[in-house]
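Priority: medium. Attachment 1 of 2:
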């Protein structure tokens, strides 16, 4: 097990860019780390420089400092070239705490069995929370032409909007999730459509791992094309900045799947990302 330093992280980002879509979540995390964004992650690899596995895992959070959802859920991001390499690294002491609640968020579905085998050996109960399509946009050719009368009301979110965003987030509603939302708004691109009273009525953010997320429109403002407008505007800006443009859409979420695929987002037919839980929360 090797803990990556600043120079290794830069090289790892460069290498992972050639391994999309499987590497997207780890790549997105390293993209932000390498540009000085605040984080609480330790990044480890099985070997260097010819790594086959990279894991981003939270450092222990201070009891006095602000807590966030990533730390509370002990969220790990994993990229592995093959099942055997992942099995070997998971067997190293300290890589995974098999007694603590852990959420492996975005685990390659092909590698779930590798985790299950170690969990079984350690007496760790497991649960599959969700299976997601990994949808990526590589060019802007399918994006809509923007309407000028609406785009004038598309602006970045501000920290003052964090409470509203947190209150409507599927995984929000508490102080830890509020701190995560505040961090997303403060450190990464975000957009919203302002209503007549200057209050956000639809919005889109980026997670710490660079995926599009928290897309939401207040019920009374739906069916006006705001979500499509926000995704289009954000995607163009991210592509111009050289950022990855991707999102996770849960299997069965037909509306979101249709929205993103209509804008040119595509997924690899045999690739899915699994949100996989170790131990009850």
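Attachment 2 of 2:
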């Amino acid at each position: 097990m090797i803990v990556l330093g600043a120079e290794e992280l830069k090289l790892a980002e460069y290498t992972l860019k050639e391994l999309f879509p499987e590497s997207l979540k780890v790549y997105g995390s390293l993209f932000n780390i390498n540009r000085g964004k605040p984080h609480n992650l330790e990044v480890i690899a099985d070997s260097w420089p010819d790594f086959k596995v990279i894991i981003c895992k939270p450092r222990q959070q201070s009891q006095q400092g602000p807590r966030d959802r990533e730390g509370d859920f002990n969220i790990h991001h994993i990229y592995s070239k093959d099942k055997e390499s992942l099995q070997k690294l998971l067997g190293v002491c300290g890589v995974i705490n098999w007694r603590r609640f852990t959420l492996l968020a975005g685990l390659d579905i092909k590698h779930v069995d590798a985790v299950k085998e170690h969990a079984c050996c350690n007496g760790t109960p497991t649960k599959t929370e969700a299976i997601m399509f990994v949808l990526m946009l590589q060019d802007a050719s399918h994006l809509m032409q923007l309407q000028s009368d609406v785009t004038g009301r598309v602006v970045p979110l501000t920290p003052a909007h964090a409470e509203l965003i947190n209150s409507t987030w599927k995984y929000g509603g508490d102080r830890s999730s509020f701190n995560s939302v505040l961090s997303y708004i403060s450190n990464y691109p975000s957009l919203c459509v302002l209503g007549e009273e200057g209050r956000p009525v639809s919005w889109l953010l980026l997670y710490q791992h660079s995926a599009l997320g928290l897309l939401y429109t207040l019920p009374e403002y739906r069916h006006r094309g705001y979500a499509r407008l926000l995704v289009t505007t954000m995607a163009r800006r991210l592509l111009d900045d050289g950022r990855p443009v991707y999102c996770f859409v849960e299997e069965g979420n037909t509306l979101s799947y249709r929205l993103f695929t209509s804008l040119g987002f595509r997924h690899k037919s045999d690739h899915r990302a699994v949100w996989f839980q170790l131990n009850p929360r």
